[in-house]
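Reading a protein record of the kind used here takes little practice once its layout is understood. Each number in the token line that follows is a code from a learned vocabulary of backbone shapes. One such record is shown here in full, so that the layout can be seen directly:
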Amino acid sequence: MKKELLIASALTASLGMAGVAEAATASFSGNVRNGVAGSDSDGTADGTYGSNQKASLSFSVSETTDAGVKVSTGFNVQDEGTNDLGDANGLTFTFTDGSKLDVIEAGNAYATHVASVPGASGEQGLTGLTTNSAPTGLNFADTSDNVGFEWHSAADAFGIEGLKAGLSASFGDDGDSGSTATSENAYSVGVNYVTTAGDSTVTIGGGFLGAADSHSITSNDKADEVAMAITAATGDLTVGVGYASGSFIDSNSASASEVDSAEVMTAGAKYVSGDITFAVGVADGEAKDTTTFGDQGSEKDSYESASASVDYVVASGVTATFGFTEETASDENTAKTANSGSSWYIGANVSF
């Protein structure tokens, strides 16, 4: 539940400053998750478990101009699972025809428009391997500079019922030297189409991303990716499958690497029965990487996972969750038992 805050009028009344302009309308929302998570990797004799606690609080601020254009922004007081306090959002302009324009930290259009494949919920998971570049999700190469924009079309774009489209670009100029592989100019296009087929609502969405980097000798660009997914919802059942492929520079690994022949497939299903939601999901990714810039990756990394979860709505805003995941990881064609095995989660999410 979001609560409205009217700030400036209260300040004006209490301080007697009638000439101070009123502030925009603000609202806030958040959640607290508390539970227990455990894991049992193939490389250890005994499993481990411990408490898992996360919380988030975000504020949204918006106002509408005399011309009918809505201007909105916001910030997170705390990002979930991090200590990043006061993280500001960008600006969004919503026009009278229903189209939108995001500026500053706008993101990429292909990631916005890819259809959402169902998957299991919960906080379970094994520790990832930093040298494994195999993708685990459809937006594995999603990267951009914060200086940029994303345009979102209105519904039924270009006169086609059910179609939405987007275009984004960002323009890096962070003063990086030729020895770093940060994202510079990035361009992306995304489309999302919703239609009906018998009793089912079918959604198809995805697009492509191209992003250059600032490194002087890398063979790959910072990111080149194509992603697409399709879902079908029939009554309380939703099923979906997605596929993505491309190449990128993995700057989040133990040592930055060139990644080639990256591809991932995801699939999942979700069934809602009253207050209970059952969900399953699988992911299968692989890639070839090398830490020698300018070379092609030759040894294969891989990642596979299968997950299931049950969510039960205990009360309004309170949901109990049980989740389970089985994972298998390999690096340079070698199985990694410490990063393979099973994990589970039991907890509750309280949202407001």
